[in-house]
Amino acid sequence: MAKTKKTAARTKKAGAAKGKSAPTKAPAQLEGIRAALAKEYPDATCALHWKTPLQLLVATILSAQCTDARVNMVTPALFKRYKTARDFADADPDELKGFVRSTGFFNQKAKSIQEACAQIADEHSGKVPQTMDELLELRGVARKTANVLLGTAFGKNEGVVVDTHVKRLAKRFGITEETDPNKIERTLMQVVPREEWTDFAHRVVLHGRKYCTARKPNCEECPCLPHCPQVGV
């Protein structure tokens, strides 16, 4: 069993950190895009509601294939019922599933939350770990979730969160033609200054919701328009 867990952990660690891709030159327009995003969203942060790293971890697991708005409707009652990693680990599975049912894929999400929290309680004294390697050892945690925790809860720029918005806009901005999130992250880590990795992702997510939507981007009013090549639009 231990061998299986270690193998799975190594697979998860591979992600964006595995191998070295050829250096990527930042598109000429990226500096203008970064400046426009920073001006439009100076206080951009994670849309999920949380007060502790543990709450952010649970909310991020629930956000998979679910809107942040829906997760934020679920978590107040959830966090009132379960306050510590041990509370989640020892929860009645059916009760926990009832709390998270409306977020979709609730069986898997409830299991991931319980097992990750059991690991945190048993192996980390109830505290969410603060390194990429340790986070990737947790059930249900891949690079996206780990990057959210490290950047948002702990202020550590270890990678770039690549969700559906970042994936879409990285192409439209002409940054990359890649479709694999790990490859997109590697590219972004090369062309965006490290100190901006977390903020840049937050800003792109907000921009993807406000202007650069999937079906009908509002290019006419977009503050990035003077710099954007509008790839695929």
Your description of this structure?
With 233 residues, the protein is mainly α. It is 57% helix and 0% strand. The chain has helices spanning 2-17, 30-40, 53-62, 68-81, 85-89, 93-100, 106-123, 132-136, 143-153, 164-172, 181-191, 197-210. The N and C termini lie far apart (48 Å). The model is unreliable at 1-11 (pLDDT under 50).
Features:
233 residues, mainly alpha, 12 helices, 57% helix, elongated, disordered N terminus
Helix coverage percent of residues? 55-70%
Shape: elongated
Structural class: mainly alpha
β-strand amount:
under 5%
- Termini Cα gap: 48 Å
What order do the helices and strands come in, and which of them pair?
Layout: H1 2-17, H2 30-40, H3 53-62, H4 68-81, H5 85-89, H6 93-100, H7 106-123, H8 132-136, H9 143-153, H10 164-172, H11 181-191, H12 197-210
Helix pairs in contact: 2-12, 3-7, 3-9, 6-7, 10-12
Quick rundown:
This protein has 233 residues and is an all-alpha fold. The chain has helices spanning 2-17, 30-40, 53-62, 68-81, 85-89, 93-100, 106-123, 132-136, 143-153, 164-172, 181-191, 197-210.
